[in-house]
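Input structure tokens:
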């Protein structure tokens, strides 16, 4: 729900329902987007449902991964408290490696797409599938992101057998 806490960053000069941004959409140093939350002008837009659902899903993923990382950190504290080096080395560390290398990478891609203008809009789902299947990502986020994803996937795969020891 957009609240009119700040002035909107969109204008409808002709009053025909076609809004234009008044902020720097290329993020090149000008006035930024709505400072906090959703710009209230989105309410009633023709693509409001699509945009809001996409935003809510991405926020849910970010908070879900954060919650899982906190759970793994609690597992770390249990291993420290019980003074169990075996649990720490064979469970806690591989769990965190798996979480950060796979789901953390997904969060990085979500946040990167939010704050950087990307000419060819890559699909996060397709990028994750290419990462897991070892295929070439045809629309990478930036130069070198495919190589980074391949390295992270290698660490993810190596963490699984260690957790199963």
């Amino acid at each position: 729900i957009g609240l009119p806490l700040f002035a909107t960053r969109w204008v409808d000069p002709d009053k025909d329902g076609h809004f234009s941004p008044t902020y720097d959409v290329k993020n090149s140093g000008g006035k930024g987007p709505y400072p906090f939350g959703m710009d209230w002008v989105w309410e009633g837009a023709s693509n409001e449902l699509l945009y809001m659902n996409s935003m809510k899903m991405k926020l849910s993923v970010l908070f879900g991964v954060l919650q899982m990382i906190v759970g793994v950190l609690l597992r770390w504290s249990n291993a420290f408290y019980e003074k169990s080096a075996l649990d720490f080395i064979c469970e806690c560390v591989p769990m965190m490696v798996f979480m950060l290398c796979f789901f953390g990478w997904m969060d990085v891609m979500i946040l990167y797409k939010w704050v950087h203008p990307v000419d060819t809009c890559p699909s996060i789902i397709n990028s994750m599938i290419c990462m897991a299947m070892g295929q070439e990502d045809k629309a990478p986020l930036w130069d070198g992101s495919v190589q980074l994803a391949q390295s992270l996937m290698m660490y993810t795969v190596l963490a699984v057998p260690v957790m199963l020891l």
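Helices lie at 48-81, 85-115, 124-133, 145-163. Residues 130 and 137 are 6 Å apart (CA to CA).
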